[in-house]
Amino acid sequence: MGSAGSPLRTAAGARSESMPRVTFLPHERSIEVPAGDSLIRAAMEAGVHINASCGGDGVCAKCRIRVEAGTVDGGLSERISPEDREKGYRLACQALITGDVTVRVPVESSIDASVLKRQATPRSTARIHQPDFESLKEEGLFVSPVEEVFLELPEPSATDNQPDASRLVNFLTMNHDEHRLVVRMPVIRKLPGALREDNFRVTATLARPVQPGRKTHIINIQPGDTTDRNYAVAMDIGTTTVYGQLIDLISGDVLAESGDFNGQISYGEDVITRIMAAEKPGGLEKLHAVVTETMNTIIAKIVKQAGVDVDDINAITIAGNTTMTQLFLKVDPRYIRRSPYVPASNIYPPLDAVGLGLELGDHAAALVYPQVSSYVGGDIVAGVMGSGMSRTDKLTLFMDIGTNAEIVVGNKDWMACAACSAGPALEGGNIEFGMRAAKGAIEDFSIDPLTLEPMILTIGNVRPKGICGSGLITTVAVLFETGVINNLGKFERDLGTPRIREKDNVYEYVLAWADETQVERDIVLTEIDIENLIRAKGAIYSGCMTLLNEVGMGMSDIDRIILAGGFGSYVDLEKAMTIGLLPEIDPDKVTFIGNSSLMGAKMSSLTNRIRKDVVEVTRSMTNFELSETPSYMDNYVAALFLPHTDITQFPRLAARLVDRASRD
């Protein structure tokens, strides 16, 4: 691979005398790069992932590596202790290559894709619900946007020598009541051979229009009867992960599914950092290529798992947030992050999948979910459609929580939506030992109320190497309810335990001593970490309250809450309410629906009615820009406490705190 303005990189193989060689352990992968490049850029070129949530600014300190041979220039940080500096630890984004060097990527800086296959084991989590796609049939909605029709055409003769394309169109018009047909150029190229391979017995693939009266496109032609092989791919392009499913459009069954981390995470873990990367010369093309490569890897996996022919895949339906969608479509996203926050488009026409770089047949159509605004994207619209929120009378609060939190309130008659920036704390960012949910992440926590000694559980039941978002919520909730921290998130100073200590003028609680961890350091939770969590939960809670206030409602009016995304499957609902992340509500009213974006993409591939309705639903969703809503800041400031300045909004928690105080 090359890079603008620098010589061609050389992977392990022929040696260029002019460029240093960088070797990454334990991957045993080497690459030659120009002197002066950073280690993080060399890792990208070599295909080695190193966590770098700040996009290379050196502020997150997640990209720690250890220099084992050779030297680098820079890479030191106040976030690296003097002891670790002596051991060779540096920040990869700040360390510049000066000569041959061998570095080790430690466990806490690497990526673990095994967690993508992990299933939730609910304790106090929301009830998990997946829609019954049989209901689509019962409602008469199971009519795929892409249909295959078997035809036995009359063969040409001296008295019937009309062109092949005309023969096809006229036969469909007369015998199948098809009108306003368009034959695509790839079909015309295939038509002479396909017709004559099986004596003019062929299968035509028709792409149905969303609106009545529009043209139906003939997108593929195959010899013989292939109507038993009609497939689609549904795909969710997330900021962190990409998931895909291979769907049988005849039965509605998912034949295979797979997921992977979005290759763009090496360019930053949030959408703003990605937009900034896209603004650099060649950046947009690079980010498009990287996510397309991830998508093609997933497509190849699910095609192989299911044992189908790529030529039998007739469509791919895609949902993603506004930034991910524009990056995938190679549309400049820079104005998404600039006031007044305008996306390039809300609705995209059907596209040729192969023209977008996807490794599918040249006939396959790409159907991209529309979006509402710069920060309420196609993934949320897909979630609203997939969850059934747009077809129910029940007043629903839909929440998709991550680095950004998107919130929708309403029902089939009306909907209002908003997005708020929660920051990366809930996904491990801006937390000293924060990490994604992966093996070794602390996910559950309890404490002995007398000795204040912790009991922790990690994903995979291995030694800890950090703490994930759900573990962070649980830990802070437990520390608060047991009186170890106060409602400001500050540690009580006189509890007489070595677990609470002061370091560099910051108080912290030791979750695990160095000899108990994978990272050879004490894993701690600091007051700064707690403050970052309080800011994140405050943004989400105040977003809910502001949106409800703006439509003249309160939590008492809500019939149900739907939690979408990976967050909802693992978070303990009671703990989330304890810290004031979620409004206090009967847990039986809360439902987790998993990857609602992928669910909506699947539904869009199965029914043309959803594709028609989604345009109307998108147009009916009133978007509130919280930054322009005066009450939002008031609500936000009020939420910067555990759980809130107004404890009466959390009556069950208030009762527990009173009970604890009486026992103390």
Structural commentary:
The chain is of the alpha/beta class and about 675 residues long. The protein is built from 17 helices and 31 strands. The strands form 7 sheets. A 7-stranded mixed sheet has the order 9-30-29-20-21-22-31, with helices on both faces. Strands 1-3-2-8-4-6 form a 6-stranded mixed sheet. A 6-stranded mixed sheet has the order 16-15-14-17-19-18, sandwiched between helices. A hairpin with a 5-residue loop joins strand 15 and strand 16. Helix 11 (about 525-550) packs across helix 16 (about 630-640). Residues about 1-15 and about 120-130 have low confidence and may be disordered.
Shape: globular
Low-pLDDT stretches = 1-15, 120-128
Rg value: 27 Å
How many angstroms separate the termini?
65 Å
- Relative helix content: 25-40%
> Helix- and strand-based class?
alpha/beta
Assembly category = single chain
> Largest sheet at a glance?
7 strands, mixed
Q: Output mean pLDDT.
A: 88
Number of helices: 17
The strand order across the widest sheet is 9-30-29-20-21-22-31
Q: What's the total number of strands?
A: 31
Strand content: 15-25%
